[in-house]
Write a structure and sequence with these properties.
four-stranded antiparallel β-sheet, three-stranded antiparallel β-sheet, binds fe (ii) ion
Length: about 140
């Protein structure tokens, strides 16, 4: 049990405290990963926030972005599949919540893979921080 082992253990504890996870499955912030289609190694994945319990979408409180990563089985590092930013939350020259335009926190990603693995999604609320969820991808 060396220094590196201790460092990894400490890092894991810190990350678990910073990122809220699927333990909060019923929470409105956790990104919901839905595998829409798997066809000839092409995977289509929908990631959204607030599927069951809607998250607020106002100038003051909203989801800013979703990121999706894929950890192929047997690999040591996750691959960055993509990031979707949600940039309109009611702001206009008349003030907060006046534009009538509010970007919804939903995004669809498509990628090819010959390996199964783990999908990992992050969402970011401007008030409540980073949230994480995972889903197994089987081929
Ligand atoms: Fe929030």
């Amino acid at each position: 049990m060396g220094f590196l082992y201790l460092l990894v253990r400490i890092s894991k504890v810190i990350l678990m405290e910073i990122f809220k996870t699927e333990d909060w499955k019923k929470e409105k912030h956790v990104p919901v990963i839905e595998i829409l289609e798997k066809k000839e190694n092409l995977v289509t994945v929908k990631v959204s926030v607030g599927k069951e319990i809607k998250h607020p979408n106002t100038t003051e409180h909203h989801i800013r972005f979703i990121e999706l990563y894929f950890l192929p089985e047997g690999e040591g590092f996750p691959l960055d599949i993509g990031r979707a930013e949600f940039n309109s939350h009611g702001e206009s020259t008349r003030g907060p919540n006046t534009s009538t335009v509010f970007t919804e926190p939903v995004s669809v990603f498509s990628f090819r893979t010959e390996k199964k693995g783990k999908l990992i999604a992050f969402s970011y609320c401007n008030i409540h921080g980073l949230w994480r969820s995972e889903e197994e991808l089987t081929l």
